[in-house]
Amino acid sequence: MISRVPIFAVAPMIDWTDRHCRYFHRQISRNALLYTEMVVADAIIHGPRERLLSFDAVEHPVALQLGGSDPAKLAEAVLIAAPYGYDEINLNVGCPSDRVQSGTFGACLMLTPETVAACVKAMKAVADRPVTVKCRIGVDEQDPEAALPDLLDRVVDAGADAVWIHARKAWLKGLSPKENREIPPLDYEIVYRMKRARPDVFIGINGGIQTLDEAAAHLNHIDGIMLGRAAYQNAAVLADVDQRFYGAAAQEADWGAIRDRMMAYAERHIESGGRMQQVARHMVGLFTGLPGARRYRQILSTDAVKTGAGPEVIAAAFAAVDFEGAREAVGA
């Protein structure tokens, strides 16, 4: 999984990148690395494992992101997750939310790099897949020029196979999670410097990347790029990923086929006791900016929540879109 081949990933996002979202994204890109939401190690150990860990085989390659700060619990979670067949296990050292801080993990772990290293070492000892870390460049009053290289060296020495760096500080006090994604200034250069100093370490970059052109430019400096909100809020951007980053033959997205596959998936989900809205909510931003997109959003947002709503909601939404405009938007 972790190699010198440029990697394009969709970032782990709490409340967004669940299994329905990942199934949808996989219909648009065959190769993009997809991440779960962060799953807390304690929840895997004591909670509903099947609901938390199961996924459709079509989602591969897919990575499990874990949250935690206890090496033994994280190792136990890795062992529990092993039969599910994830392609990578990632440790969250970047989420700044209050509920993460209260558990003493996420971005606040930047303050205790020795703990992060111990967690990575414990996870590596039991994992049969690559173990990676996703972090910030620092938190609060930390000097990133000192804190980031210290963390990198410790986790690499502990066996981390790759590090994804969100190129912003996280402010644990005074900023909301949303503000932490927007207000702290981006510093791509420090990530580039970390890579130059560690040519044999896979380092990927995350934060503020809006287009595939921007993503491609980052690959002149680092090994992988990760899009978050830009990929979620307009998933059509994923349609050009396979050709641009993985050498696939150029071809237009077959939106009709994607529609049909999502209708079939939604039908299976409903038959198993799920609700249409759980699938449809991730599809709302697909055709942002195109003629008919407003009506598309309205149908998915309002009709999918109605009692008895089924796959026909997806058909009706797609029927409202100008697909000629969608073809022109691919890769934008």
Automatic annotation (TrEMBL):
Database matches in SUPFAM superfamilies: FMN-linked oxidoreductases
Residues that bind FMN: 65, 134, 166, 206-208, 228-229
EC annotation from Swiss-Prot or TrEMBL: 1.3.1.91
Active site location: 95
Marked site positions, Interacts with tRNA: 92, 178, 181, 294, 297
Catalytic activity: 5,6-dihydrouridine(20a) in tRNA + NAD(+) = uridine(20a) in tRNA + NADH + H(+); 5,6-dihydrouridine(20) in tRNA + NAD(+) = uridine(20) in tRNA + NADH + H(+); 5,6-dihydrouridine(20a) in tRNA + NADP(+) = uridine(20a) in tRNA + NADPH + H(+); 5,6-dihydrouridine(20) in tRNA + NADP(+) = uridine(20) in tRNA + NADPH + H(+)
Molecular function terms, GO-annotated: flavin adenine dinucleotide binding; FMN binding; tRNA binding; tRNA-dihydrouridine20 synthase activity; tRNA-dihydrouridine20a synthase activity
Pfam families: Dus
Keywords recorded for this protein, A-Z: Flavoprotein, FMN, NADP, Nucleotide-binding, Oxidoreductase, RNA-binding, tRNA processing, tRNA-binding
Keyword Transcription regulation applies: no
UniProt-listed PROSITE patterns: UPF0034
Domain DUS-like FMN-binding: 10-310
Swiss-Prot/TrEMBL cofactor(s): FMN
Similarity annotation: Belongs to the dus family. Belongs to the Dus family. DusA subfamily.
Cited function: Catalyzes the synthesis of 5,6-dihydrouridine (D), a modified base found in the D-loop of most tRNAs, via the reduction of the C5-C6 double bond in target uridines. Specifically modifies U20 and U20a in tRNAs.
PANTHER family with a match to the protein in the record: FMN-LINKED OXIDOREDUCTASES SUPERFAMILY PROTEIN
Name assigned to this protein: tRNA-dihydrouridine(20/20a) synthase
Species annotation: Rhizobium favelukesii
Gene: dusA
